[in-house]
Amino acid sequence: MKTEIEDISPVQKKLKVEVPADIVQQARTLAIKQLQKEAKIEGFRVGKVPLDVIEKRFGREIQQQTVENVVDQTLMHALDQTKTHPISRPEIAPGMFDTIGNFSYSATFDVLPELMLKEKDFKGLKLEKEETKIEKEEMEAELKRLQDAMTQLEPTVPETPFVEGFVATIDFTGLIDGKKFPGSDSKDYTVEIGTGAMLADFEKELKGAKAGETREVRFHYPKDYFNKELAGKEARFSVKVKDIRKKNVPVLNDDFAKDLGEYKTMHEVRADLEKRMTAAKEGQQKGELYNQILKTLIEKTKFEIPDSLVRSELSHMLKDLAEEMKKRGQKVEELKAAEVVKQFQPEAESRVRGFLILNQIAKETALQITEKEMDDRLAAIAKGLNRPVAEVKEHYEKNRLLGSLETRILHEKALEFVLNEAKIKSVKPKKGSK
User: Which CATH superfamily, name and number, covers 2-110?
Assistant: First the structure.
């Protein structure tokens, strides 16, 4: 068997294969037998049609199946022989049978680019990180979150009006142009004036209502409302106030600290909050440093990327977008795919470049993933999902996700390697940055 590789581009190759007559004849004999098993001809039982009859009646089908058999039997061997590794499904272009029975075909496919990226290129990168500091307003916001979580709701007398400092339980039914719409109905919904959980116009119409009262609420959705189907339209809601309770907000003192269960004083609460918030900021900061690394390396490392990888990434991005739209009650059918693909194209290309760069860094630094690292990551995932580790591992194995998980860990190690070798400069936080 003769093979020849033609470089169409740095990321695409064409493999030309010439198959000798004896292999072609074997493939043809197999094709005839394959057709014999399924051929339906009057006067013969299925699977019992004589081979000579098959050859006379199914000439075109025999030739087509022969070509498929030849490719199936020889393509992998030809790829091994030429030491090429496709990353896309090969496009087969059948050739001609010559006078002595030889057959040729070509296979065109994408391959990974060769990156000219050495340790000197990713060691000593200049990065910037903002100084980690917990501002007073951040601490107060976190304390308020704890305060809200510990707030008790007290029953009220029947004539109590719904105003600030109270929480109402409501049932509502909404219509637009006389028709219901996704999210227009709800029962036992909790609402509090001023929190922003409901539109301001909706809250305004409910202010002063009493338990047992039903109010008709009318308002227009904002023109820039996230759900485009509702934006700018007038809605009519029938709202029944079922219950009104008063918020009993605890005072931020040592008694409050003790009620949290882990502390004795508010000083301890603040110290622990600062520690946790600092850790969270540092985690976010690391993510931003990772992004700096990728952006820097993508800009300085020039190479062509395979279309098949970009298409695959675009497919994942579109799938994620569709799922997000469904959660928001938006119609995926109205998505203009061509416009979204054009919008997502630069990000998809950037992700592919980052993926290939991290692969190369892992290769250059001989990074490996141990069995313990895989087990630890699966255990962490199981803990986050509150599921048994064995169940999570079975899911990953069954759905063939272990490979992608291993790649993710490997890329994290590659980023950590570059980060540890980088020259990091601390800078003041940007105005408005927290």
Answer: Trigger factor ribosome-binding domain (3.30.70.1050)
CA 130 to chain centre: 28
CA distance linking residue 434 with residue 432, whole number of Å: 6
Asked whether the predicted pLDDT for residue 80 surpasses 90, the reply is yes
Give CA separation, 54 vs 20, 30, 46, 51, 101, in Å: 24, 12, 12, 5, 20
Q: Is the dihedral of CA 176, 181, 185, 190 positive or negative?
A: negative
- Nearest CA-CA partner of 144 in 249, 5, 44: 249
Task: Report the half-sphere exposure of 176 (CA within 13 A, side-chain side).
Answer: 15
- The widest CA-to-CA distance across the chain, in whole angstroms, is 101
Can you tell me the distance from the alpha carbon of 210 to that of 244, in angstroms, rounded to the nearest whole number?
7
Domain 263-427 sits in CATH 3.40.50.300: no
Q: What percent of the chain has pLDDT over 90?
A: 74
Residue span(s) of the chain under CATH 3.30.70.1050 come to 2-110
Contact criterion met (CB below 8 Å) for 92 and 7? no
CA–CA separation, 282 and 292 (whole Å) = 15
- Each residue's pLDDT tens digit, 388-400: 999 999 999 999 9
What is the rounded CA–CA span in Å between residue 66 and residue 73?
A: 10
| Residue 296 identity (one-letter amino acid) | T
CB atoms within 10 A of CB 109: 22
What is the torsional sign of CA 223, 225, 198, 144?
A: negative
pLDDT tens, residue by residue, 183-212: 899 999 999 988 888 888 898 999 999 999
Q: Which two tokens stand for residue 235?
A: 């809605």
CATH of 152-248, one of 3.40.50.2000, 3.10.50.40, 1.10.260.40, 3.30.230.10: 3.10.50.40
**Pairing of β 423-427 and β 126-130:** parallel
